[in-house]
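Lab notes, practical 5.
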Amino acid sequence: MCEKVISDFDMTLTRFAHNGKRCPTSYSNSPLKFSLQLKELLNKYYPIEINASLSVEEKLPLMVEWWTKAHELLLQQEIRKDLLAVVVKESEAMLRDGYKLFFDHLQEHSIPLLILSAGIGDILEEVIRQAGVFHPNIKVLSNFMDFDESVEERMQFHLDSYDIVLVKDETMEVPNAVLRYLTGIQLTDTTM
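Output from the prediction step:
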């Protein structure tokens, strides 16, 4: 039996709130001239995302709108890679209680941890790195920033590269094939 752990990042491995205050996500944790605008987007679209009374068809165009607006704001910032560590260090992002035991246990037993996140991979990796638990068994599949292109080139790239959306595919064959290809980890339908 091949053991593995597959997890989301924002509000799964990280805390939702601490001392009554909401913790930042990998998007709201970026080097922000536009943090207020990103927070306004979160306040507008997150309630829609978690609204169980809305259908996927109703939510999908609004989620794409949210994603597009958030990425446009991030691209306008001309983020520098050398500032990411400072931003994360100064932020209130934090992993959940017991994270060290969890990450270290997986590493000690050679259990792969695959983090699938719609967040910003550069930020989430830095959160894990600064917590001292970015072990070799961790693979991150996420949205990573490209620091070598102009803002206009990056914006066009992101607008042209929406995530794959699987509608009514309950077999898990396509996602398992993609994950096998990207990670070399063998997955079965029962692992998802």
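Observations recorded by the TA: Residues 149-191 form one domain. Confidence is low (pLDDT under 50) at residues 187-192.
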